[in-house]
Amino acid sequence: MELTQPVIRHHTRGLSMKSLFQSRSVWVRALGALTLCSAAVLSAVSAQAEPLKGAPAPFDKGGVRIALVNYLSTGDFFQAYEAGAQKQAKALGVDLRIYEGRQDASEQREQIQQAISLGVSAIIVNHGLPESLKDVVQRALDKGIKVVAFDVDLANPKVPQIEQSDHDLASLLLDQAVKDNGDAFAAGYVYVAGFAPLDRRDAVWRDFKRAHPNVQEKARWGTVDNPIAQSVANQASAAYRAHPEIRVVFAPYDEFARGAKLAADEAKLSSKLRIYSADISTADIEAIRAPGSAWVATAATNPAVVGAVSVRAAALLVAGQDPGHHIVVKPTLITRDDLVKNDIKTIADLGAKFPAFRSSDAATAAWIPAAQ
Questions:
Q1: Comparing C-alpha atoms, which of 321, 334, 371, 312 is closest to residue 257?
Q2: Which pTM does this prediction carry?
Q3: What kind and span of H or E run contains 10?
Q4: Which range among 10-24, 183-197, 255-269 has the greatest average pLDDT?
Q5: I want to staple 269 with a disulfide (CB 3.0 to 4.6 A). Which of 164, 246, 264, 358 is the partner?
């Protein structure tokens, strides 16, 4: 089969710098503050990766190439994730080659194979469908290429798994829902099965319902058909009409929350509903802060930080060091009251007021410079 040529983005120290959706795909938007300069993003020629003074081999001599192979690249979360990865690569003197995700499992396989053929030192797999990736990832490992995976469980002991703490994220939200609404309410739930982050959040939701028997799930809906927010809004409108008793919506992905809020706004139900979501972007902050918004809380990690952690984990493996098998980035609870009281209007404001949102000590070492 002829390989599809991907769009490849190169990044080195000399250059500046959003789960999954195929037929069943999904996953996350969240941050809008970090955008990319197109001249740096779409370079057709790779620059020389630079030596890093005081670093272990091979970083001390430069020339280290790492591939970031995405399943999906569009949306605030993934753009910010890539931006964070590029900044960390720049700090490390790494030539980071970014393969654009197009929600195509077969193309992602081909891109991993291209990275193998290129002879990169490490591959970062950003989301994807495990069943389509396991064999080609094993091929990379057999060639001596290090592999790390973000939010896709490849069930391989040699592949460290990087993830947001989805358990903590969902728990923070549901604890806040009880704080706001008591432990007896009618709920709507937005969910699509089959993808690791949402499935981990769903496990917390199931445990929560067992622990709170007076919380009744009245309706469940969810889709990843594009545009996701509008598609979810269409479903939410039907759910609200069929179950007017719903007072809380658990929508643990910000595109789901956008749809739930849109339907609530259109049905003039905003004063009767509270929506709890995951992830954050500047656009999300604006939606949460809007007067009378039904979207009252979210829990999130900074995707730029997760991108940087992904590059650091890959770099540690290349240097023969152990980043750990499960690398977890902790989330922060963010409420509407937090945003309003602290006059937070952008992701930059959020980072300034919530220091825990700015950085993570996951996958670090003394020789790895901080991303600037």
A1: 334
A2: 0.78
A3: strand 8-11
A4: 255-269
A5: 264
Residue-wise pLDDT tens digits, 101-147: 888 999 999 999 999 999 999 999 999 999 999 999 999 999 999 99
221: which residues sit within 8 A by CB, 6+ positions away?
188, 189, 190, 232, 235, 236, 238, 239
Distance in angstroms (rounded) separating the CA atoms of residues 164 and 329 = 5
Query: Does residue 31 carry a pLDDT above 70?
Result: no
Q: Based on the domain organization, do 27 and 126 belong to the same domain?
A: yes
Q: Say which residue the tokens 């290090």 belong to.
A: 146
Instruction: Indicate which CATH number applies to the domain containing 260.
Output: 3.40.50.2300
Residue 201's contacts (CB-CB under 8 Å, 6 or more residues apart) are 166, 169, 170, 252, 278
Residue 165 gets which letter from DSSP? Answer: -
Domain carrying residue 106: 8-163+303-330
Q: 262 φ, ψ to 5°?
A: -55, -45
According to the model, what pLDDT value does residue 103 have? Answer: 82
For position 12, what pLDDT does the model report? 36
CA dist 23 and 61 (Å) reads: 44
Q: Which two tokens stand for residue 1?
A: 């089969």
Rounded Cα distance between 87 and 136, Å, is 28
> Which phi and psi angles does 153 have, rounded to 5°?
-90, 105
